[in-house]
Design goal:
Among the domains are: about 180 residues, Rossmann fold (3-Layer(aba) Sandwich), CATH 3.40.50; about 45 residues; about 100 residues, Arc Repressor Mutant, subunit A (Orthogonal Bundle), CATH 1.10.10.350; about 80 residues, Elongation Factor Tu (Ef-tu), domain 3 (Beta Barrel); about 120 residues, Threonyl-tRNA Synthetase, Chain A, domain 2 (2-Layer Sandwich). The strands form 9 sheets. It has a 6-stranded antiparallel β-barrel. It has a 4-stranded parallel sheet with strand order 3-2-1-9, sandwiched between helices. Strands 22-23-28-27 form a 4-stranded antiparallel sheet, covered by helices on one side. It starts with 13 loop residues before the first helix and ends with a strand. It is globular and about 100 Å long. By secondary structure, the chain is an alpha+beta fold. It is about 40% helix and about 15% strand. The chain contains 29 helices and 28 strands. The longest helix is centred in the C-terminal third of the chain and has 25 residues. The structure holds zinc ion (2 copies). The site of one zinc ion has 6 residues, from helix 28. One zinc ion (ZN) binds next to helix 28.
Length: about 850
């Protein structure tokens, strides 16, 4: 690994870097200087409250909040303003609302649509406040605004006049950037129809700049989600009589509000996307330097997505990916931490299944320990941890490290103790194992209760089998028969050893000794212990687990004598009783060293070389085994693409053992020589069985090529599909994509239902383009080698998936639309087999 030159430079956290750059920019611009003097440094973000708000938007709010906080910490007078775009038309009725009742409001501005629940000013107010009511909990300090109110107060009057006076110039900008004109008779303004109240169906066609009157029509059939009434009228465009189209409005807000920083999701920052239009309008029409990260020359980069994945999340109705839903899965401080620690250019791919939650909690704890100087770290790690911890803290960072129990301890307790009085009983156990030597304060009790609640939720819904804990009462013949003679011998010896009180290290040493003595792997001893205690081959980390159980109970189990036939324990189906029984067996000695494995994982420098980027067509390879965790194998190089970026993980074979999936786990930011690499995670090959090879062995592997090749074709096709989809329907918010060997499905936030005829047109454009045998190139981005670019003809985007080299390999494709409801449209792409 190269030693980066920056090592010598003074280290600056990214939000502080942005802060410095914004300050410099303001100092160099007389207009901005004056604006800032009058109003402060305005960090601005906005959201259309058209329904339940996705967690992706909240990522933006946290980023903006962190920038404003960093500015204030640097002594700048910064304000974070979040505006609700409640003048936008109501264009889709969420599925859960009364369709008949709401139908008549389609097309009207959201401020004129009633709230679904009493106690809110209007529809937009309801959905906006569902989120903003949580701001205190998650530590977002924002001044909340209504965009409609600004229209009504006349704040936009000046920019409305400028926009209308420069309508031709704005048309020219659209034409230059989109390569086509957008309704040549249209003026950049949508009045509210005086007859029917709709703002979504009106077209302004004449502007009298002297009288300041606009002529408009309310056009039937203009959009398919609302009816136009046919009315023609004339009206002043000021004081809330209508609104600017959103890309013009975006640009108009900057000088109107005095914005110096506003980022947005990366989908807005695509070539020819909405940000480029708004930046051009701000520069050429409003004469205002667009907010950071944009300049008139370069629009800069937006932040990455917050993706929420996993089976549970997509199938269960109870758990969703809305901002508010996330509070069911993570406590507010952890949700904030997750967003703060992930740099904006890193996608957050959050899947609550598996060990995501324990890893996240452990990572938080490590950052906290480094912050309080309780754990060694190099300078840069320490500085980084300091900023992450400060910006993650809900109000101010605490003066001393708060008392915390580990997530694993909490999940073990949550599974073993009955729900009744769980906090008090957990506290008793903590005292017993020497974790506390005093009564917990009320706020500490609240924290304990909180983590137990989330650990319980996780254990019930998302925990992998090996985290599920249910101690068995007796050992069946079946279990005895599964053990080899060496396993029996070593377990019985271990039982003898445990008759005395032992420290963790002594148990480790003993297991190693037994493994040598009986010539079996330590892993086999672990397996035997799990079988005897839990009736299955896996469990929580063995030594803390053994230490947490009553010693006499473990010793007795390890004699292998308490079989069903010899000892009768009253069987009961009553779960609570079983829990009680378990609880009695637990005297618990759970030290906080449970995260050794994770720490090792985070600190390790070796990364798997990704052969699939060098040559996506390579099917076979030899590699060295770096690590084995049960059935999961890490190699020093691999052709297996790990699940991510919407693409399925590869399957195949390693040394003849089936690879059922390939996944990535671990931190999103990996540190190499003190340098943060925002890719991260280890590539795990998930085998069907525990492998018979070991770390250090060289293995032969091959991927399931047919499956991968079809996936490559479909992945490439999906980018082409999206390009033409946006050409025909306009740009839409990307909500998620998923591609495997059968189909690609891409979800978009769409204000209108995708017209099937137009989709046929998209399909035709795609197939024409594909048939022209265009070359496809993929390469690392110049700004960050961990981000990859996909390029074909004039289509260009960031994608880390695997793709074919030429469109001719794709063949013909077929598109299918699905309406997922609530403003969500799905487009599926299929390969048309030519046989
Ligand atoms: Zn009308
Ligand atoms: Zn791709």
């Amino acid at each position: 690994m190269k030693i980066m030159k920056e090592d010598n430079k003074e280290w600056v956290y990214w939000t502080d870097k942005v802060t410095q750059e914004v300050k410099k920019r303001v100092e160099n611009s007389p207009i901005l200087k004056k604006t800032v003097k009058e109003r402060g440094y305005i960090v601005y973000d906005e959201k259309t409250p058209s329904g339940k708000i996705h967690i992706g938007s909240a990522r933006g709010w946290v980023i903006h909040d962190c920038i404003a906080k960093s500015m204030r910490q640097a002594g700048m007078n910064a304000r974070f303003i979040l505006s609700s775009d409640d003048m936008d038309p109501f264009d889709a009725i969420p599925k859960n609302l009364d369709q008949e009742k709401y139908k008549k409001y389609l097309g009207k501005p959201m401020i004129h649509v009633p709230s679904p629940v009493e106690g809110y000013k209007h529809y937009g107010d309801y959905y906006f406040r569902q989120c903003t009511d949580k701001f205190g909990e998650i530590g977002i300090e924002a001044e909340l605004e209504s965009t409609a109110k600004r229209y009504i107060n006349g704040d936009f009057n000046k920019t409305i006049k400028i926009a209308l006076d420069n309508a031709d110039k704005i048309q020219g900008i659209y034409k230059k950037i989109y390569g086509k004109s957008v309704g040549s008779e249209k003026l950049p303004f949508n009045p509210i129809c005086e007859k029917c109240g709709s703002i979504g169906t009106t077209v302004a066609y004449e502007w009298d700049s002297e009288k300041e009157i606009i002529k408009y029509r309310c056009v039937p059939g203009l959009v398919d989600w609302a009816e136009g009434c046919g009315f023609e009228g004339e009206i002043s465009p000021y004081n809330g009589n209508g609104k600017l189209p959103w890309k013009v409005e975006w640009a108009a807000k900057w000088p109107t509000v005095g914005v110096v920083y506003e980022s947005a999701g990366k989908d807005h920052f695509t070539l020819g996307g909405s940000r480029s239009i708004s930046v051009a309008i701000a520069c050429e029409v409003f004469n205002y330097l667009p907010p950071y990260p944009s300049t008139c020359e370069n629009i800069g980069k937006g932040y990455e997505f917050f993706l929420v994945g996993g089976k549970k999340m997509s199938t269960s109705k109870g758990l969703g990916s809305g901002f508010v839903d996330m509070f069911d899965i993570l406590p507010a401080y952890m949700l904030r931490f997750l967003m703060v620690k992930s740099r904006p250019e890193t996608a957050i791919d959050f899947t609550p299944e598996g060990n995501t939650l324990p890893l996240l909690f452990n990572e938080f704890e490590r950052v906290e320990k480094v912050y309080f100087g309780l754990e060694d770290a190099d300078d840069r790690t320490r500085q980084n941890a300091k900023r992450i911890y400060e910006l993650s803290s809900i109000s101010e960072a605490p003066k001393k490290k708060p008392f915390r129990v580990s997530f694993e301890f909490a999940s073990m307790i949550a599974q073993i103790l009955p729900d009744e009085n769980i906090v008090e009983r957990a506290e008793e156990i903590l005292a017993k194992i020497g974790q506390i030597d005093r009564k917990l304060t009320d706020s500490e009790k609240n924290n304990l209760e909180e983590i137990l609640k989330y650990a319980n939720m996780w254990a019930k819904n998302f925990a992998p089998e090996n985290y599920r804990i249910q101690v068995i009462e007796s050992i069946s013949e079946d279990i005895i028969n599964k053990l080899s003679s060496q396993q029996k011998e070593s377990i019985m010896s271990l039982g003898n050893f445990l008759e005395k009180e032992r420290k963790d290290k002594e148990i480790w040493a003993e297991i190693n000794k037994l493994s040598e003595h009986f010539s079996i792997k330590p892993q086999e001893i672990f397996e035997a212990a799990y079988l005897v205690l839990l009736g299955k081959e896996k469990g929580p980390r063995l030594i803390p687990f053994i230490q947490s159980l009553d010693r006499d109970f473990v010793v007795e189990k390890f004699t292998l004598k308490n079989k069903e036939s010899e000892i009768k324990i009253a069987e009961t189906d009553d779960v609570i009783n079983k829990k009680e029984l378990n609880q009695q067996k637990i005297t618990i000695q759970l030290e906080n060293n449970v995260s050794i494995k994770e720490e090792k994982m985070m600190n390790e420098n070796e990364m798997t070389k990704k052969l699939f980027y060098e040559d996506p067509y390579q099917k076979e390879f030899e590699a060295k085994v770096i690590e084995i965790q049960d059935t999961k194998v890490v190699l020093d190089r691999t052709c297996f693409y790990p699940e991510g970026g919407g693409q399925v993980g590869d399957s195949g074979e390693i040394n003849g053992i089936k690879v059922i999936n390939t996944i990535k786990e671990g931190a999103e930011i990996v540190k190499v020589n003190g340098q943060e690499i925002p890719s991260g995670g280890k590539v795990f090959h998930v085998l069907e069985f525990t492998p018979n090879f070991s770390s250090g062995d060289t293995v032969k592997s091959s991927i399931d090529w047919d499956r991968r090749y079809r996936t490559m074709k479909l992945h490439s096709a999906s980018h082409i599909m999206e390009y033409f989809l946006f050409q025909i329907f306009g740009e839409m918010e990307r909500l998620g994509t998923n591609v495997d060997n059968k189909k690609d499905r891409s979800d978009y936030g769409s204000q209108e239902k995708l017209n099937p005829e137009k989709l046929v047109e998209v399909e035709k454009l795609c197939n024409d383009f594909i048939s022209k045998s265009k070359e496809i190139r993929t390469y690392p981005s110049t700004s960050n080698e961990n981000i990859r670019v996909w390029e074909c003809d004039n289509i260009k985007m960031f994608c880390g998936g695997t793709h074919v080299k030429n469109t001719s390999e794709i063949g013909k494709i077929r598109l299918k639309r699905e309406n997922k409801g609530a403003g969500k449209e799905r487009v599926e792409t299929y390969l048309v087999e030519s046989n």
